[in-house]
Amino acid sequence: MLKTKPDPRVIFLLVMTFSTFGLLIREDVVAMAGLFVIVLVFAGLLGVQLRRIFGRIKRLMQILLLVTLLRSFFTPSGIVLFAIADVPILTTGGIAMGVLVALRLIIFIIGAAMLTVYPARALIQAMVQMKMPYEMAYMVSIGLRFVPQFAQEMQDSLIALQLRGVEIKKLKLRKRLSLYSYLLLPTLVSSLQQAKELAMSMEMRGFRALPSRTSYFSLSIKAKDYAMMVWVLALATAISFTIFNNNFYEIIMTTIYTA
Amino acid sequence: MGDFVVTIKDLTFKYTDRYRRSSFELVVENFAASGCTAVMGENGSGKTTLGKLVAGILRPTFGQIFYNDMDIAGLTLAQIGGQVGYLFQEPSRQIFAPKPLEEIAMPLELRGVCPEEARAKALEILEKFELSHIVDSVTFTLSRGEKQRLAIAAAMVMQPKYFVLDEPTTGLDKARRQILADTLKKLQAEGMGILLISHDMDFVELMGADVRQMKGGILC
Predict the structure, then answer these.
(1) A161: closest CA of chain B, how far (Å)
(2) What mean pLDDT is predicted for residues A191-215?
(3) What's B139's DSSP letter?
(4) Cα distance from B200 to chain A (closest Cα, Å)?
(5) Under a CB-based contact definition with an 8 Å cutoff, are residues A114 and A136 in contact?
(6) The complex's ipTM?
(7) What is the pLDDT of residue A249?
């Protein structure tokens, strides 16, 4: 683990680079696995609690498996491992595609977790110093601050419902989905209420009273941060040329066009 | 006095999730409660944690909790709901449906009761808790006192024998407290045991509860 954390702006660049690669790598499972390893190393260096993150990913395992199977079914290639009446269900190429999608998702999750090692104030300041309007930077930060609270509220609602004799796990999918829509309602009402109160409180304390805002706390990029940025960009360029076989520009344009 | 007894034996509890106090430890050596018991103590002393442990929402790190002679370790929350009800400190968190009638009928329907029967049962419960006047109201616009009574009424669908109430008098004026006390005394007269988690000595005296003190995670 690094003794001193880099400037948050470096990590923003890092996460953007990894996420972009995660989107651009479309067929090469080995490249995606390589990216996954690089992300793991950086996350470890930053002190991201990987065991906890993987604990959470384990809960998404069913969805990841489903995505892998669907991908395998819809993009059959390679050796057929399992087929029903000549329709290939599981193929080696299909499974590889499924694994690629699952790895992509995990890379995004770990990338987001890399930002959580910084205090919210440092992230806001980083965004403001990256010329993002401070109103937006605060919105992002406040949104993140409320995530655990909403999770707790949702959890309480689920508990209250189970204490009324509803075995959620035994419900049929249709009923379970309608139930979740019910559970979202109190969380939505409470979030709107809290947003209203918070907005009033912020305005009473002079938020947005002036077009710009100064801050005593400021981030300064040091030589080692610049070095890390240059290193990340160099690595990104090297990976691009290696993986995409000089078709990088074409791939970017195809991705933009598809999006 | 209710016949239902909650017993705790050599219990220790520690939070493991990152958003909670990892240094906090709750210790209860021996505790047996029936009738009306109040747990009082300072903020952060562990009263709510104890209430959640009794209601099976949190599970002990070590030790056991019994409802009469039954260890609750293997019970699901849905099974516990038939024995113990729980009122959250913030009643809005346990009200989901836009209408009070739906609020009570919906879990019944999810458990397979036919809609007509569920509706009739819900009306009956609302009447019992003197909430018939809010049948057509929107639940999110109800007053705190009404939300609390609706949450208690909704929990009563399961006919629990014991009820845990976490700070039930927060935000209630004297008249609303009296209404709540009357409702709880009515339930107590029907044989229900009550565990009050509270700071409010007046309310605890009004309920005639046995008082236990909680200090720094230890039940005295």
Answers:
(1) 7
(2) 86
(3) G
(4) 24
(5) no
(6) 0.86
(7) 61
